[in-house]
Amino acid sequence: MAGLSSTQLNALSTTNLGALTTTQVSGLSTTQAANLSSTQLNALQTSDVAALSTAAVASLSSTQLNALTSTNLQALSTAQAAALSTTQAANLSSTQLDALQTSDVAALSTAAVASLTTTQLNALGSTNLGAFSTAQVAKLTTTQVAALTSTQLNLMQTSDVAALTTTQVSSLTSTQLNGLDSTHLGALSTAQVAGLSSTQLNALSTTNLGALTTTQVSGLSTTQAANLSSTQLNALQTSDVAALSTAAVASLSSTQLNALTSTNLQALSTAQAAALSTTQAANLSSTQLDALQTSDVAALSTAAVASLTTTQLNALGSTNLGAFSTAQVAKLTTTQVAALTSTQLNGMQTSDMGALTTAHVGSLASTQLNGLDSTHLGRCPPRRWRASPARS
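The chain above was modelled as a monomer; its predicted structure follows.
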């Protein structure tokens, strides 16, 4: 067979060509295969198509491949599918591509996959789209990824979604991201989530934002966190709020913090509370400040405590006021101390009374002093009372 010229082979009837054995067909050269007519190729038995050498398959023109019936195309072995060039793959019809066996789709070279048109990809059914390997998915162009529907993305293996590069993820549209189910959204790595633009994150529905895992939330950058809407922040699970990095918490605006529910504010860890700036602390509502866990109140920096308004301090309950450390009390301004009620002063730890400076004591009014119980009065060093007003 290998000695037959192309002219001789071309002259064979489809009946005689179909009568060739698989052994004979396997011996066809690249030149012989490349010169067979489309009619002759389709006259081969499926076993004969499977017997063609990978070199012979690689020599077929796009016209020859395009003319193959779905039955004969499905007869290709994984080795033959792997031999298809980028030109051959890119010129298969959408119907032919989706007619390939899943094993053949998985065998396509990464270069062949990267050559597929968006029309071809959009026509892929769930079975074949799910057959892509992580290596193939990683080689998809941003144009190809951006053209996939949310339904198609959800049909991929979760390992394939996790294989998307940060560049590919950044090409996803808001519609695609919002269309991801919680399983596929949860498959995104922290690096992938961190690679999302603020525009992409802002477009996430509260449902999808709430579906993010604590690991994913912990990877949000300061820019991403600072650009979340108040509604989105409140859509986070309390475990997610606690997972935000201290840098991310410190990047939140007063508007964002003011909009947090007491439940989400209470989810802040002591490290996050300690990261609150003076501006952030001073702009919390009185209700929010008093809703903080006592451990968080105790974790506030001394600068943050010194920035609190008298309105905020006056609204603090005895439990949270009693959580102040001696270092925090020592940094209170005289204006802040002068605004505390006797009840609040008596709610402090007795050790905190000992942390009051001479200036603090000097700012206390007679009403405050007269309202102190003997225990708290007795804890303040006598030398500091010299600057205080006379006690009636």
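The chain is about 65% helix and 0% strand.
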